[in-house]
Amino acid sequence: MRSKVAMVSEAVRDALRSHFGEAVREHAPLAPYTSARIGGPAEVLVEVRHLEDWDVLLPLLWETNTPFWVLGGGSNILVADAGVPGVVVWNRTRGWRWQTLGDEAFLWVASGAGLTPLARYTVDQGYAGLEWAVGIPGTVGGAVVGNAGAFGGDIAGVLVEVDLWHREQGRVTWTLADLAMDYRTSRLKRGEPAVVLAVVFRLHRADAAELRAQVARFQEHRRRTQPPGASMGSMFKNPPGDYAGRLIEAVGLKGARVGDAEISRLHANFFLNHGQATAHQVWTLMRLAQERVAQRFGIWLEPEIQLVGAWPPEQLRALQEPGLGGEAHG
Predict the structure, then answer these.
(1) Nearest-CA neighbor of 269 among 241, 296, 314, 239?
(2) What per-residue confidence (pLDDT) applies to 324?
(3) Same domain, yes or no: 115 and 163
(4) Active-site residue numbers?
(5) What end-to-end distance do the CA atoms of the chain give, in Å?
(6) What pTM does this model have?
(7) 158-199: per-residue pLDDT in tens?
(8) Nearest-CA neighbor of 276 among 84, 36, 33?
(9) Cα–Cα distances in Å, from 328 out to 25, 56, 169?
């Protein structure tokens, strides 16, 4: 007999196994799927490899009110130690195709494609617009949701439209304006009940050798300024006119450690897992950084990462603004 707290019914499990077969696993550890190597198990993990699978999966989950979360490359997330109730959908859809019009190229990409290999391909083909993305982990779908960016570029700067499965609207196509993108966020990240299926980017012709040289400069900068090892990427958004890493360093927290979780000594906006760090240890360091920066500078650092899974509500609220409890001391 299953636990009363199970969020996925036997009927839904049977339907998933019937369609996806061995691509369905129960109580699958999620840490290996994340860049931080942190997190508890998925109640049910489903691997999606074909775009048409979404047409079966999403109506089933929505019609049965089964909670689910889509996992891409596993970066910029912190999975709770208790794991993720419901269904975790591992998006493994791949593929892209081109249409060139003069000096422009329109690039259709499946949402599960890796952002870095896609960006490398566009550079090698002599098209500019995604060169800033070489070296950024994660998938195209996740990059759209979080409006990923670096070195002055971002997804909003090249995006034309997005194919979505929307809970109320069904299969729809949204434009850049529909997504209401802002710094490291979008309408999707703010809770719109929709899943990214595919994306169209607009790129422009450029000299491939110059693009490769630019990529090399970006990569050298990353090597000098960003720590290697397991991490979630940038932990906090940069506040207007400043940098989260500078503020955390200024309050003396470089190298601060709780268990195997550490604020990097190279770049204070990167939090590292030195082997067996837990999500709670990372949360404790996040809250400590927020408190110290708020006390000294009057700035509340807003998380750039997404906390996923069975987090205590008070811990989630505590990261949103001062005075909501869950204080961390250290």
Answers:
(1) 239
(2) 53
(3) yes
(4) 184, 234, 304
(5) 43
(6) 0.92
(7) 999 999 999 999 999 999 999 999 999 999 999 999 999 999
(8) 36
(9) 36, 44, 43
